[in-house]
Write a structure and sequence with these properties.
The complex is a heterodimer of chains A (161) and B (517). Chain A is an alpha+beta fold and 161 residues long. Helices cover 42% and strands 11% of the residues of chain A. Chain A folds into two domains: 14-70, no CATH class; 82-158, 3-Layer(aba) Sandwich (Glutaredoxin). In chain A, 43% of the residues are buried. Chain B has helices at residues 10-14, 17-30, 71-79, 96-99, 117-122, 127-135, 137-147, 159-167, 189-196, 198-212, 226-241, 272-279, 308-320, 322-326, 359-366, 400-405, 424-438, 444-461, 466-483, 487-491, 493-502, and strands spanning 2-7, 35-40, 52-56, 59-63, 88-90, 175-180, 216-221, 257-262, 303-307, 329-330, 333-334, 336-343, 349-354, 376-381, 388-389, 414-419. Classes of the chains: A alpha+beta (161), B alpha/beta (517).
């Protein structure tokens, strides 16, 4: 989940989406688990999925849209092949996360929230990984990194294909 | 066969614990030796991670911090067992940082195998539930009430009162909900328990279910904690397979099971009513109270909702007795608190102690000051909604009321240390910015106030009518504090106002540039 595996996203398929949604349609409060699973399969929540979710959960499309857009985790477009999440919360700030962010932005040539032009890396902020005693920290495709320096971050970015 | 213990705690992984485990396994295999490597949680001494321990006739001997490059020489020392090496620390329990603690909730974390319920039982696990079963539901609630245990999530509401209210609601469907949406920066105690001693949390939730008559529990774990999600889900599966969850828990004639739900990156879902809406599959918006969750909670049913550490403290309250637990602490803050030392601190980690230890002891003495070696300038206690304290307030004891009396809060027990390089106006701005990013949007003071707050602080910092804008900021904070629906908007003024009060020099505003013509 959340990029911990390297499985590439599947192309959009209504049948596949319906199959994923069906696993949760009878679960109480199953919309969030369904969204997580859809994103695991397709890499993001395609607009077409909203209609299918609305039908399966007996909700309006507006309600489903409201949920999708409320949560930071759910993407509405495909991210880069790798996702780099830099912690920007206070404990990491105290150990230089603002400088690390500036370094990463310059190195990758993107702003926070953007994807490199070659589609290799999406750079994002995250607010706390619970690694606050080994700050500053980051998560790259589900792998956690602590006590980061610009050099250690560069080395980690280097390995991303 | 030699047994090694290497943490699989996310923070240990973040500094290379997996590399060390892999290298040790490979080195042992190359030499035809067989090692058993047990992946534990962390003891919470993060400056020593990765911390490798070896079982010897004299108890466990620790080595740390270890890197994969240390492995060739380290292996010989480990196999002696416990031989000399520059990284040798001796018995971890004898290290001052651990020796000074009172580990009740975290007694097993970093020691036991989090995937072994047998190991958990061998270290006193399930003694709490056994005692609850012998007491009966009503007396179990009374025991929790008598212990003085207050919610460890931040609000400090007496846990026993929540339980008593739900127990009194009659025989209808009720729920136990565990709030594992530990979003506060500087905190990681929930994560450590879920990864290092998950059965204590399962036991605590089960005791709650037994005590109030609920058969179903949910745990809502934040998505930023994938390792905790995996570790806890695995523990639930094991507990179910071994009869510790399910239709007849421990053959005690009652049913209880737990379902794991994963958050989706919304800080506000740590607020209990927003969390309930999120489990229900909705936007995580805050509900007005009343009704209290104890009356109308999850799916409209009576619900006990407590933080991870609150539930995880219940087994020891039951097994040792309310009186023993209550003996620790001061004033109305009873028992122990897992305090988390984080950020720019030399000895960062988890320090469980009875309430009453002072902030200065924690930061300077136990934490050893800053990691950078520069003077401490500010300490934020209680997460993004907690106040910034200067060293002049270091005599404040760690106690709910003492912090409140100084316009602060202990929250979930996170202490983030900053050195003298910190710009406090920038920290105040971040508090408002974070509130704007994470606001659920339901109430105006939080939704709009936070954005206006960023703008006002920007004006102060750039010297635009600094004095007048400081008054505007104070007024805005007042509106947010008293007009917001929940603690997100209501407490964001704490870091902002404390920064402005204690560090006024950072809010003086840059002098206006006058065109020199």
């Amino acid at each position: 989940m959340h990029g911990t595996d390297a499985r590439p996203p599947e192309p959009w398929s209504v049948a596949r989406a319906e199959q994923v949604i069906a696993r949760h349609a009878t679960t109480e409060g199953g919309l969030l688990p369904a969204l997580h699973d859809l994103q695991d399969v397709f890499g993001f929540i395609p607009d077409e999925a909203v209609r299918l979710l609305a039908q399966a959960f007996n909700l309006s499309r507006a309600e489903v849209h409201g949920v999708v857009t409320f949560y930071h985790d759910f993407r509405r477009s495909l991210p880069g092949r790798h996702v780099v999440k830099l912690c920007q919360a206070e404990a990491c700030q105290s150990m230089g996360s603002r400088c690390l962010r500036a370094h990463a932005c310059e190195r990758l040539g993107v702003a926070l929230g953007d994807t490199t032009a070659d589609g290799r890396v999406t750079l994002e902020a995250i607010y706390c990984l619970g690694l606050c005693a080994t700050a500053p920290s980051a998560m790259i495709d589900g792998r956690v990194l602590g006590r980061l320096t610009p050099a250690r971050l560069d080395a980690a970015l280097e390995t991303l294909a | 066969m030699t047994r090694l213990f290497i943490p699989a705690d996310a923070a240990a992984l973040a500094v290379g614990a997996d590399d060390v485990a892999t290298a040790l396994h490979a080195a042992a295999t190359a030499r035809g030796l067989s090692l058993t490597i047990v992946r534990t949680g962390s003891r919470g001494l993060f400056w020593l991670e990765p911390l490798v321990e070896v079982e010897t006739p004299d108890g466990r001997i620790g080595y740390g911090p270890v890197s994969a490059e240390d492995v060739p020489g380290l292996l010989d020392a480990l196999l002696l067992p416990g031989g000399p090496h520059p990284r040798r620390l001796g018995r971890p329990a004898e290290l001052p940082f651990l020796k000074r603690q009172t580990r009740l909730t975290f007694a097993r974390c970093g020691i036991v195998d989090p995937r072994s319920i047998e190991d958990y039982r061998a270290h006193g696990g399930y003694a709490g539930l056994e005692r609850a079963l012998s007491l009966g539901p009503a007396a179990t609630v009374e025991e929790v009430l008598a212990s003085g245990l207050r919610g460890r999530g931040g609000a400090g509401f007496p846990t026993g009162i929540k339980w008593k209210t739900v127990a009194a609601t009659g025989p209808a469907q009720k729920y136990i909900v565990c709030n594992a949406d530990e979003g506060d920066s500087g905190t990681f105690s929930d994560r450590m328990i879920m990864e290092g001693d998950p059965f204590v949390l399962i036991e605590g939730m089960t005791i709650a279910g037994f005590a109030v008559g609920a058969t179903k529990g949910f745990i809502y774990i934040r998505s930023e904690y994938p390792h905790a999600v995996a570790a806890f889900a695995e523990a639930v599966r094991i507990a179910r397979a071994k009869g510790y969850l399910g239709a007849n828990v421990m053959d005690g004639g009652f049913a209880f099971d737990i379902e794991v739900r994963v958050g989706a990156g919304a800080y506000v879902c740590g607020e209990e009513t927003a969390l309930l809406d999120s489990i229900e599959g909705k936007r995580g918006q805050v509900r007005p109270k009343p009704p209290l969750p104890a009356h109308e909670g999850l799916f409209g049913k009576p619900t006990v909702i407590n933080n991870v550490i609150s539930f995880a403290s219940v087994p020891v309250v039951l097994s040792e007795g309310a009186a023993a637990y209550k003996n620790f602490g001061m004033g109305r803050s009873r028992g122990t608190m897992p305090i988390q030392l984080a950020g720019n601190v030399k000895y960062g980690g988890l320090f469980e102690a009875a309430f009453g230890v002072t902030l200065g002891e924690l930061v300077e003495d136990i934490g050893g000051g800053t990691l950078t070696g520069r003077p401490v300038r500010a300490v934020q206690v209680g997460g993004p909604l907690g106040a910034y304290f200067p060293p002049s307030l270091f005599d404040t004891p760690f106690d709910y009321e003492a912090f409140a009396a100084r316009d602060g809060l202990i929250g979930h027990g996170g202490v983030v240390v900053f050195d003298d390089g910190v710009d406090m106006a920038a920290q105040a701005r971040f508090a408002m910015e974070f509130c704007a990013i994470e606001s659920c949007g339901k109430c105006t003071p939080c939704r709009i106030g936070s954005t206006r707050g960023v703008e006002v602080i920007d004006r102060i910092r750039s010297g635009q009518r600094a004095e007048a804008n400081r008054a505007v900021l104070a007024d805005l904070c007042n509106t947010m504090k008293f007009g917001s629906l929940c603690a997100l908007g209501g407490f964001t003024p704490y870091p902002v106002m404390s920064a402005m009060t204690h560090f006024p020099e950072d809010f003086a505003g840059a002098p206006l540039r006058v065109a020199a013509e």
